[in-house]
Design goal:
Elements lengths: L1 H30 L3 H8 L2 H10 L1 E3 L9 E3 L22 H7 L9 H12 L1 H5 L12 E5 L5 H9 L4 E5 L3 H13 L5 E3 L14 E5 L5 H16 L3 E6 L7 H4 L2 E8 L2 H6 L5 E7 L3
Parallel strand pairs: 3-4, 3-6, 4-5, 6-7
Antiparallel strand pairs: 1-2, 7-9, 8-9
């Protein structure tokens, strides 16, 4: 009986939470003038509904200037170790599809410190190409954007820039669009796997958070970024010290800033207590 009551309380909490989140979201969406983002979101309403039902709109992170839809301790799915798309009967098919690989729903430490750095040092980063005296806007890329916080912060700090938030997960791109609406910014979203093709577009600034999760992806990434750097891009990386951040790689990076991580971020990330912002500036 006690266990049954706990389960009922969880269900009631989830329903109440989902309703209040949806009401707040409807208000943001109604008041937004970001036409292209709204159209993209409307074309993926089922994903939007799953995100609204299972995440929290929160500022409880290293960049409280931003509101983000994230999985937090208040969300029942936060406490689920794994959701199997095919065999787990506890979840409806939509929830399985949206949250099978929910990397976008966690604000990872590298992304948090990179976004914090942008908010703290906007003139040094976002004004770095003014000397080019270009007539067109500064073009930026948030590679492996996740929840989109870095792209959103860059746009908030420089409203004239053109920034693409890229993530190979289309669900992540929907979440990014929703987070952009929350923060009243207009950004582009892309789910093309840019690392699997030669660099085509020219970017003035590239941001990379939490992509150094193993040496294989790190090597692929560094080759791609090396080409972007040769073409004039300034490149900033955020990372807490994952496996891909080898000593050889560090020789190609310049340490810019190190941040202590909040307690909740430490617990979510196997005890990492600091994360670092690097600039890719050596050949």
């Amino acid at each position: 009986m006690i266990r049954r009551n706990i389960c009922l309380k969880k269900l009631l909490f989830a329903r109440k939470f989902s309703k209040s989140t949806k009401e707040a979201w409807d208000s943001y969406l109604q008041n937004s003038h970001r036409t292209s983002l709204k159209k993209f979101i409307q074309n993926h309403q089922d994903v939007v509904n799953a995100i609204l039902k299972n995440t929290e709109m929160t500022r409880d992170h290293l960049t409280p200037e931003l509101k983000l839809f994230l999985l937090t301790k208040k969300c029942p799915l936060y406490h689920e170790p794994f959701i199997d798309k095919y065999t787990d009967g506890r979840f409806d098919s939509l929830t399985k599809n949206v949250f099978q690989d929910p990397f976008w729903s966690i604000y990872w430490p590298g992304g948090q410190v990179l976004t914090r750095f942008i908010l703290d040092e906007k003139e040094g980063i976002l004004g770095c190409t003014k000397q080019k005296a270009r007539k067109d806007a500064i073009r930026m890329l948030d590679l492996g954007a996740g929840c989109g916080a870095t792209a959103i912060a860059a746009k908030l700090m420089n409203g004239m820039c053109k920034i693409v938030a890229n993530d190979i997960s289309k669900v992540a791109c929907v979440a990014i669009a929703m987070n952009a609406i929350l923060n009243n910014v207009d950004i582009e979203v892309s789910w093309e796997n840019l690392l699997q093709k030669p660099l085509e577009d020219l970017y003035d600034v590239i941001f990379v958070g939490d992509l150094l999760y193993d040496e294989e992806i790190a090597n692929t990434l560094m080759t791609w970024l090396g080409e972007a750097h040769k073409r004039g891009a300034r490149i900033y990386l955020g990372d807490p010290g994952r496996h891909g951040l080898s000593e050889d790689l560090k020789k190609r990076l310049k340490l810019l800033r190190q941040y202590s991580l909040p307690e909740n971020v430490r617990k979510e990330n196997h005890g990492y207590d600091v994360a670092t912002v690097w600039e890719f500036d050596r050949t």
